[in-house]
Amino acid sequence: MTKQKASAEAKEAGGAQSEVAQYNSNPSLLSIPAELRNHIYRYALVEEGEIRVDAPHRTQPALLCTCRQIREEASGILFGENRFTTPVMDLEWPVPTDHWFNKHVGDDAELTIRLHGVQKWANLEAWLQRYHSRELRGIGHSESQEWEVVAKAFEIVAVLKRTPWETVQKVVQKYKEGVDLTDGSWTWA
Fold first, then answer.
1. Which residue stretches belong to region Disordered (predicted)?
2. What angle do CA 117, 136, 68 make, to 5 degrees?
């Protein structure tokens, strides 16, 4: 056996030993297969009921704070497989701009908004303006007639997203006037 061949065989054996040693070392979450990580993310993040999102509930799941890769992998599970809810009093959006929910969630997350109080036009208009400037999320379709009036206002703003707010505000104001002319079931405070 030549020196070169013996050296090559030793390297191969050493390489195999280092692979075994690497495999047996303390594994991290990122060292296990993605399929297993997804099971762990689901176990840690998916809730049976709704997750409340509002100012007092400001703490994001700790798992999302570990590193960028885990946040990117786990966020899809957190936001795609849970149902979120937020109470809206007097049409004032209760989730602060810097809340983790606003920072990480896309508009595809299932968010149930529960209306309480009265319909305050000034609050809705402020919410619409912040939605127009992409500071806050909007809302989707609702089955209730009361909420559908609000949802249509967001649809108008979405269609006019590239239009300056001053113009959008005029259009939304005309929409409000049209709602005011309906059967009187919708009143603004």
1. 1-20
2. 130
Q: Has this prediction a pTM greater than 0.70?
A: no
What mean pLDDT value characterizes the chain? 80
DSSP string, 147-160: HHHHHHHHHHHHHT
User: For the segment 74-128, what is each residue's pLDDT rounded down to a tens digit?
Assistant: 988 998 899 888 888 898 888 887 787 877 666 567 778 888 888 889 999 999 9
Q: What is the pLDDT of residue 147?
A: 77
Helix ranges restricted to H, the chain = 3-24, 34-45, 68-80, 100-104, 121-132, 145-159, 165-180
Q: Phi and psi for 148 in degrees, rounded to 5?
A: -65, -35
- Tokens 């113009």, residue located: 167
* Other C-beta atoms lying within 10 Å of the C-beta of residue 109: 19
- Integer angstrom CA distances of residue 170 from 138, 163, 176: 19, 11, 10
Query: Between β-strands 110-116 and 50-52, what pairing exists: parallel, antiparallel or unpaired?
Result: unpaired
DSSP state string for 9-44: HHHHHHHHHHHHHHHHS---GGGS-HHHHHHHHHHH
Per-residue pLDDT for 16 more than 50? no
